[in-house]
Design brief:
heterodimer, A: 396 residues, alpha/beta, 7-stranded mixed beta sheet, 12 helices, B: 124 residues, alpha+beta, 4 helices, 3 strands, 40% helix, 23% strand, globular
Chain lengths: 396, 124
């Protein structure tokens, strides 16, 4: 499949639907339109069967049982259900919750909301690599801690937290471990038993599936309780009411099935592209800085700060490339990314950051074109910059 | 940010970027305004021959709008009599580029730089 111009390098924002996924979805938008809850005729039975098949496909990818998969409208809703649902269900056991200061707003805003409702929140700061340490988490745990929420892969800088160690620590202390896997699913193995994860949020549109669909893994052994956030019919075993969007669900299932088959091969291919792009950038341009750990990251993400030029000018000059700036998830705002500020970047370097995210359809030719464009424009803007003139004499 | 076609064209193909150099009998005057921490720094360098601007160049750490405006201002400065520099209507040039209202700080920055040029030219 080839994508139209400009060259798409924003896979972390969203992904195009895989043609194989779309093909699976189409019948459920046309002839097979039944409601999966209609139990008295074949339209409903067929839809129910398709939903359960998709549930199994998601479960297979993460090593879960199909009955542990709850359909939602996306990772944001999954995060809300997981965090609020667990907080309210276990409030008699304790009201202390822990997360990390570089989580997606879909987690941080939920935590902020719960704080207004009487819960106590600890937000752990990351280090310059964008990671927390297990010692930090250990020190933050209390007798009344009921939930720890840590994302698998950061959406802006692509770093991977130590889920194995965090899961083990939470299990040792009988504390629920929630993982926002919106960016991690399909980019790294996420086997829930191996990592001792109790709740995991997943997103369809980040894995070449449709937008508007997600899933939440909810452990059954031992059983995790959640207070439902949407009421009205008791669908999804009471976790999440509402008529199921069969076509969306089929799409997410198909997307997961594809990943179960080809994830390893895909990650290896993207790794080669990553190395090509990063080597090219560092050879041609002095004073550029990778944001986040170089070692603990997915290859799909390169978030790089470029010294000496202003961020908006840089973005405007990259005509023909679709990527994100240092205000990745807050692109309407002129504030620098809070994630880059959290890892210690000064506002100017945070503002002049590019988030390049590679994906399934990224080609070597696209990487080379992007590399050439970025290098050419950075060199042009640096020639125009009085700030770079002073900096370069120090760099040299 | 959605800019006008002429602003984007001028930003992508600046003609007056760099530093002016003076030959024997000419005067070089430079103005430097702005603050890196605030996100904008602008330097104008002009060569004065007799009583007019012989050449004008700019360097800018700033947004696309700032760079485009600085480039257009340099174009207007060249061959301008010294007495008319103060009357250069930066706001009109901003309007010509269809600068969005949110980019008015670029007008102020350029105006500050021209004022500094004027003061330096009178004292040098």
């Amino acid at each position: 499949m080839s994508l139209p111009n400009p060259i798409y390098l924003d896979y972390a924002a969203t992904t195009p639907i895989d043609e194989r996924v779309l093909e699976q979805m189409m019948p459920w938008l046309t002839t097979h339109f039944g409601n999966a809850a209609s139990s008295s005729h074949s339209y409903g039975w067929d839809a129910e069967q398709a939903v359960e098949k998709a549930r199994a496909q998601v479960a297979h990818l993460i090593g879960a049982h199909p009955r542990e998969i709850v359909w939602t409208s996306g990772a944001t809703e999954s995060d809300n259900l997981a965090i609020k649902g667990a907080a309210y269900a276990y409030k008699d056991k304790g009201k202390h919750l822990i997360t990390v200061n570089t989580e997606h707003k879909a987690v941080l805003d939920v935590f902020s909301y719960l704080e207004t409702q009487g819960f106590e929140i600890t937000v752990l700061p990351v280090n310059k690599d964008g990671l927390i340490t297990i010692e930090q988490l250990q020190q933050a745990l209390r007798e009344d801690t009921v939930l720890v929420s840590v994302m698998a892969v950061n959406n802006e800088i692509g770093v991977i937290q130590d889920l194995q160690a965090i899961g083990a620590l939470c299990a040792e202390h009988d504390i629920l471990f929630h993982v926002d896997a919106a960016q991690g699913l399909g980019k790294m193995p996420l086997l829930v038993d191996e990592l001792q994860i109790d709740l995991m949020s997943m997103s369809g549109h980040k894995i070449y599936g449709p937008k508007g669909i997600g899933a939440l893994y909810v452990r059954r052994k031992p059983r995790v309780r959640l207070e439902a956030q949407i009421h009205g019919g008791g669908h999804e075993r009471g976790f999440r009411s509402g008529t199921l969007a069969t076509h969306q669900i089929v799409g997410m299932g198909a997307a997961c099935a594809i990943l179960s088959e080809q994830m390893d091969e895909e990650v290896a291919r993207v790794q080669v592209l990553h190395q090509r792009l990063w080597a090219g950038l560092t050879e041609a341009l002095p004073a550029i800085y990778l944001n986040g750990s170089a070692e603990h990251r997915v290859p799909h993400n390169i978030n790089v700060s470029i010294a000496g030029i202003e961020g908006e000018a840089l973005m405007m000059s990259l005509f023909g490339l679709a990527l994100s700036s240092g205000s990745a998830c807050n692109s309407a705002s002129l504030d620098p990314s809070f994630v880059l500020v959290a890892i210690g970047r000064d506002p100017q370097l945070a503002h002049s950051a590019l988030r390049i995210s590679l994906g399934r359809y990224t080609t070597e030719q696209e990487v080379d074109t992007a590399l050439n464009t970025i290098v050419t424009q950075v060199q042009r803007l640096r020639r125009l910059s009085p700030v770079w003139q002073k900096m370069s004499s120090q760099v040299a | 940010m959605a800019y006008s076609a002429q602003l984007q064209a001028r930003f992508m193909q600046t003609r007056f970027g760099g530093e002016a150099t003076a030959l024997t009998g000419q005067r070089l005057v430079k103005a430097y305004v702005g603050d890196y921490a605030q996100g904008s720094v602008l330097e104008f360098s002009v060569v004065i021959k007799q009583d007019y601007i012989h050449s004008a160049r700019f360097k800018c750490y700033g947004c696309a709008a700032c760079i485009a405006l600085a480039d257009l201002v340099c174009e207007k400065l060249e061959s301008l009599p010294l007495a008319e520099v103060k009357q250069l209507a930066v706001q009109e040039l901003a309007t010509e580029l269809e600068l969005p209202m949110s980019k008015m700080h670029c007008v102020w920055l350029v105006t500050d730089a021209l004022n500094q040029l004027g003061k330096l030219q009178r004292t040098s």
